[in-house]
Design goal:
The complex is a heterodimer. By secondary structure, chain A is an alpha+beta fold. Chain A is about 35% helix and about 25% strand. Classes of the chains: A alpha+beta, B alpha+beta.
């Protein structure tokens, strides 16, 4: 199908972006790899698209004392090629290979993925497992929200009117694993797991397992894989999709849990 | 043309300026306004890859970019890369390996495959498959496409 009619404006500065997104019916256009399909299918019908791709300052990936700060407009391709990401947040480097296909990775952005909050997407689960901080900005300043408080429901986040995602900050975590099952490489996950281990223990999150990315606190705390697989039933109630029943998804979640657990348990 | 914006872009080396409605995606613009019908439209939501084109040297889904977003960009299509002979080795290999039947996916497939050829790295068959995973072919079963790409990479 063809997109409905809308107006389009390119923000040349953050100040201009704040002014534009406050207009009635305005919607932010980042990489557009989810928004443009939903326009083409007429699932979205904004009055005004505010293209923020010109805000170069939001593209940087930089190492800070607290961790790695990834600008909201960093593309998947940029993340895939980044040595800083591979070295300091290898979970993200593993996950990005599952994000769609090369032509889409050249335009899609991490900020766009987090702001959309598709529960089957990879970055939201990674942000949750790493307890990343999402940095939001508006014309008055900056607000920092932990991933646990950022994802509120199906395609729903803590972003308030007038706010933009500016960056996401990840702690440096070396031991991590990302695995997903999909019908075709690059398609949305049937189910996926993002798991990390650090000094305070394991943190395990799933994508494709609910209305939001889902943290599995009981499985994360378990002392053995057997106990973790049992505990996972308290953490997850994956909804059925067109092809997989809830029971199948639960089974697959346990399979991924065992693969991830064994990888994290290997001496390194 | 209530929201049309003046947009200047370079298509296959030719600079042009048009007034474009924001709702028009880039492949529709190339096909409908410029008559460059080599880039195909399949799904229009980023799944099939038939509309794969190059913008500023990188492959993108032409249906997932608005034509007004190409302002100031250099766009290359199957027509441009055929005329420049850049695609000639791949096209020859596709021909020789019978790597197409109906040909609908072929322009997008060639654009995605040429991305690998340009990178100039050795690839396993799995890596080739991964790179073209975003391009659907419903005729060949991919085997002959991977053969053709492998040969063009000098590994055949």
């Amino acid at each position: 199908m063809k997109a409905p009619s809308f107006a389009y404006a390119r923000a040349k500065s953050l100040a201009e972006a704040f002014e534009l997104i406050e207009r009635p019916g305005a919607k932010v256009l980042a990489g557009g790899q989810s928004l443009i399909p939903s326009l083409n299918m007429r699932l979205a019908h904004p009055d005004l698209l505010v293209d923020i791709n010109g805000l170069r300052d939001l593209k940087a990936i930089e190492l800070r004392p607290a961790g790695l700060r990834v600008g909201a407009l960093a593309t998947h391709a940029q993340i895939e090629k980044s040595e800083l990401v591979a070295k300091h947040v290898p979970l993200l480097a593993q996950a990005v290979k599952h994000v769609a296909h090369p032509a889409i990775r050249n335009r899609g952005t991490i900020g766009g993925s987090l702001a959309l909050a598709d529960p089957a997407a990879e970055y939201p689960a990674c942000a949750l497992a790493l307890n990343a901080t999402i940095v939001l900005v508006n014309r008055r300043g900056e607000r920092r929200v932990s991933a646990e408080h950022f994802f509120k429901g199906l395609f729903d986040t803590d972003i308030r009117p007038g706010e933009l995602v500016a960056a996401v900050e990840f702690p440096k975590v070396e031991r991590s694993v990302f695995i997903e099952l999909a019908r075709r490489h690059g398609d949305y996950a049937i189910i996926g797991i993002a798991a990390i281990a650090d000094a305070s223990g394991k943190r395990i999150a799933f994508c494709g397992a609910g209305a939001t990315p889902v943290l599995a606190p009981n499985a994360s705390r378990a002392a053995s894989l057997d106990a973790a697989q049992k505990a996972l039933e308290k953490d997850l109630q994956p909804p059925a999709d067109l092809y997989h029943s809830s029971a199948t998804k639960m089974h697959l979640a346990k399979v991924l849990l065992s693969r991830a657990w064994n990888t994290l348990s290997k001496p390194h | 043309m209530e929201h049309a914006l003046e947009t200047t872009l370079t298509v296959n080396g030719q600079k042009l300026t048009r007034r474009i409605e924001p709702r028009q995606h880039l492949v529709d613009f190339l096909r409908e306004e410029l008559g460059l019908t080599g880039s195909h439209i399949g799904c229009e939501h980023g799944v099939c890859g038939a509309c794969t084109i190059r913008v500023n040297g990188e492959i993108v889904r032409g249906c997932l970019m608005l034509a007004v977003q190409a302002d100031g960009c250099s766009v290359e299509t199957i027509e441009g890369l055929t005329d420049s002979k850049e695609l000639a080795p791949l096209q020859k290999a596709f021909h020789e390996h019978n790597a197409l039947q109906c040909g609908f996916c072929t322009p997008g497939m060639l654009m995605a495959a040429q991305d690998l050829v340009r990178a100039g790295k050795r690839c396993t068959r799995d890596e080739i498959r991964e790179h073209i995973s975003g391009n659907y072919c419903r005729c060949t079963g991919y085997q002959s496409i991977v053969d053709a790409i492998e040969e063009t990479l000098g590994q055949g």
